[in-house]
Amino acid sequence: MFRSLYAGLVVIAGSMTGCIVPNREGSAIMSANEHSKTRMLAEFEGDSPRFDDLSGEWRIVNDNIMGGRSLGGGKIQNGVMVFRGSTNTNGGGFASIRASDKQWDLTGFDGLGARVRADGRRYVFHVFTGLSYDNGNVFYRGEFKTKPLINTEGDPLETPEAWQEVFVAFSDFVPMVRGRAITGRVEPLDPAKIEGIGLMIDDGLDGPFRLEADWIHAQVLPASG
């Protein structure tokens, strides 16, 4: 089961078909997150029946949309989202998993964080605001490096509980269109306009990958000094 919290609603994709139900605990959830200076955007519960279909909330977008050969997909297993596949740089070289059309207003937050364990490769938060440029859809990318905690089969390289928390500031997100940076040609990422978030791998390497995510949240950094 995937749970996305936003604007007083809980969106639940139980068997990955998707439904929206009122969140009777919404105000309590938001209050708790305000005290901890985070806002939970995605938590994962239970299991999903299919590796390649998270259509209730998340969708897979790989480089085959442009003739590429990379493979990627996701499933929820034991309360963790597993994003895995294999990248092929002979035509595209990327795989991604996205949740869109949510209208997250993250005004006042400094960036995105996640609790993950992965294979040591570089991954990307990608964020959408509905902006277009040069007849293409703009997304903002924020890259993070993972520690080699598991192999591509999910077997731990350290201990089964070896997780890391990653964070990328909104100010570090780079606007992209069709694989090229367009910094200075469009507005910087505005957290108030976020309509979709996702995870992507496009590190220029060939071969299998695996990233497991426990949660994704927006975060306020502690004041310096």
Report the sheet-strand fraction.
Answer: over 45%
- Could you tell me the mean pLDDT? 79
* Coarse structural class: mainly beta
**Distance, first to last CA:** 41 Å
Percent of residues in helices comes to under 10%
Assign an overall shape.
globular
Indicate the CATH class. Mainly Beta
How are helices and strands ordered from N to C?
EEEHEEEEEEEEEEEEE
Describe the model.
The chain has 225 residues and is mainly beta. The chain has a single domain, classed as Jelly Rolls (Sandwich). The protein has one helix at residues 26-35, and strands at 2-6, 9-13, 19-22, 38-44, 58-62, 71-77, 80-87, 95-104, 111-118, 122-133, 136-145, 164-169, 174-177, 180-181, 194-201, 207-219. Strands 1, 2, 3, 4, 6, 7, 9, 12 and 16 form a nine-stranded antiparallel sheet that branches. A seven-stranded antiparallel sheet has the order 5-8-15-10-11-13-14, with no helix packed on it. A hairpin with a 2-residue loop joins β10 (122-133) and β11. It starts with a strand and ends in a 6-residue tail after the last strand. Mean pLDDT is 79; it is low at 1-35.
